Amino acid sequence: MGPAFAGTTNLEKGLISLAMTNPIHIIGGGLAGAEAAWQIARAGLRSVLHEMRPVRMTEAHKTQGLAELVCSNSFRSDDAEHNAVGLLHEEMRRGGSLILAAADKHKVPAGAALAVDRDGFSAAVEAALAAEPLIEIRREEIAGLPPAGWRSVIVATGPLTSPALSDAILKLTGEDSLAFFDAIAPIVHKDSIDFSKAWFQSRYDKPGPGGTGEDYINCAMERAEYDAFIAALLAGEKTEFKEWEKTTPYFEGCLPIEVMAARGHDTLRYGPMKPVGLTDPNTGRRPWAVVQLRQDNALGTLYNMVGFQTKLKHGAQTAIFRMIPGLERAEFARLGGLHRNTFINSPKLLDERLRLKAEPRLRFAGQITGVEGYVESAAIGLLAGRFAAAETAGATVAAPPPTTALGALLGHITGGAAAATFQPMNVNFGLFPPLPETGKRGAKGADRKAALARRALADLDGWLGRRAAA
């Protein structure tokens, strides 16, 4: 019996015994599903993890590996003191997250960010789950609603839910599915980059996990080069949308680069191509614009073009991206792509324990709930796993305090956001309850974020039953 239920009553022990013969079913082997299964096993209960790949592949996945990273290989900032996603990293580490453990083990240099070798990361997650006797992995598609005999189900199918299951959920809830496009950035072979023009440097020379302060490859552009590049982006041949896709909105946090360019000539210079904190060693000054590439695998042979998600056709991508100084002879391990994501209206459909109000045996986790980002998806998987395990064992577990990153994210998707205007959301300090005023103005800027982070970790330790660090 797992440590999460030590000291349980005889009745609760009986419920746990029953749970061992009626496992919790998890649909989807992405980050959220993998994390949910891990948390359930840590509670000493059985689960069955259903993953449809390779029986049925998606438009975006390239492998059959569990927890495959489809888009970027970055988990974003690892700064737990001043960044909300970095704080979420730390909270998940303290909660025994498999996803964060695998990420830490397979991190690659990425400045202040936590980025991973995507193949090593996926393999580590799958190996841990396969080695756990309380977890059964089944490679099969769940086409439609799960069987009625499954008493507890976590739907963690992500933004690429199979059509049959998606249609069944829509019929059950009576809700129209919200949807947006998510674009994938290209990956370049390092040995095809011209380092007589490109150089290594992090913004402001800031090192991150496993990094040195020289973690990104930078390709500088002068003004005329930038102008020509923008013109080519706008003129390049794009992927044609199907009729049913034409009204689907993009997620603002992952816009295709040519869509950003269409919003204004200098939009990219103030976005992914901003040159701040960088000095071109060839000129000794800050360039007009910069393309950054981030290490994508442990060997350091592949680099991801940061912020260069795109819906350009492959031929146009190759021609236009080779206009970038240093990438004139670039060889691409993967070109960019585009896929359609779907998510449910969680504030309207889910209760505070992530259960579907219309059928409470069904829980939802991951991106399908309307959180955006790898870490946020895994975080909701962590919570769904804990909630499902406690309920199955006849125990109760409080939701994490709203002052924590986990609690703030959960609160946003289960009622904090307006259902009428609900859109995908990354974790951010704007979701946290404000600090009490301690003077005329209260804490501001970095001091405020640090204070929010300290409060969050203290409250999280209380929720986890951990002793505060000395």
Provide a brief overview of the structure:
The chain is of the alpha+beta class and 470 residues long.
User: From the 3D coordinates, which CATH architecture of the largest domain would you assign?
Assistant: 3-Layer(bba) Sandwich
In total, how many beta strands?
A: 17
**Separate helix tally:** 13
Q: Which regions have little confidence, pLDDT < 50, spanning 5+ residues? A: 1-6
**Please, what is the CATH homologous superfamily of the largest domain?**
FAD/NAD(P)-binding domain
Explain this structure to me?
- By secondary structure, this protein is α+β, with helices and mostly antiparallel strands.
- It folds into two domains: 3-177 and 344-464, FAD/NAD(P)-binding domain; 183-340, Elongation Factor Tu (Ef-tu), domain 3 (Beta Barrel), CATH 2.40.30.
- Helices cover 32% and strands 16% of the residues.
- It is built from 13 helices and 17 strands.
- The protein has helices at residues 10-21, 31-42, 84-94, 98-105, 118-131, 163-173, 223-235, 257-262, 314-321, 346-349, 374-392, 405-416, 445-464, and strands at residues 24-27, 47-51, 74-77, 107-108, 113-116, 135-139, 153-155, 178-184, 187-189, 199-200, 216-221, 289-295, 302-305, 332-334, 337-343, 355-356, 359-364.
- Strands 6-2-1-7-17-16 form a six-stranded mixed sheet, with helices on one face. A six-stranded antiparallel sheet has the order 10-11-12-13-9-14.
- A hairpin with a 4-residue loop joins strand 4 and strand 5 (113-116).
- Residues 1-6 have low confidence and may be disordered.
